[in-house]
Sequence to fold (167 residues):
Amino acid sequence: MTENKIRVIITNKQKAVKIPTGLRMLIRRCCHAVLELEKFEGPAEISVTFTDNEEIKKLNAQYRNIDAATDVLSFPMGENGKYDLNHETGAKILGDIVISMEKAVEQADAFDHSLQREVAYLTAHSVLHLLGYDHVENMEKVRMREKEELVMEQLGLPASSSYIVSE
Fold:
């Protein structure tokens, strides 16, 4: 592994779900795995915030004009591979990830897998968004899904069942 320092700042702004032991470390490992898979160069900084359905619904309405709770929101800071720098550390600021822990619990139950796997998956999905991936077109959706599942396997969290991609 190259000496790319990746700083993941994790903040818990919700009380609905108790954060399991080891989840923060798993999120850090997940961010590292995605950046390694994508051959991202240099130091990077990612911010991850745990929130609840009420708060993510507000953010979703504010930034996407969708008046509903969602599982995760990504706020990329870069464009076309160009990022703002943290002038103290020289790290590229990739952006912010906001995860509804309530929604993650619901989805983990629905997909019959652990909360850890769900949060890791949402993190991988979001880091790909921070790196400029999108899933508007079907082929991009498939490419993103392949990368997400690759990262899940690397983390020892393979899919327990097939996913139904729905919008």
About this structure: The first helix runs from residue 23 to 37. The longest strand covers residues 92-100.
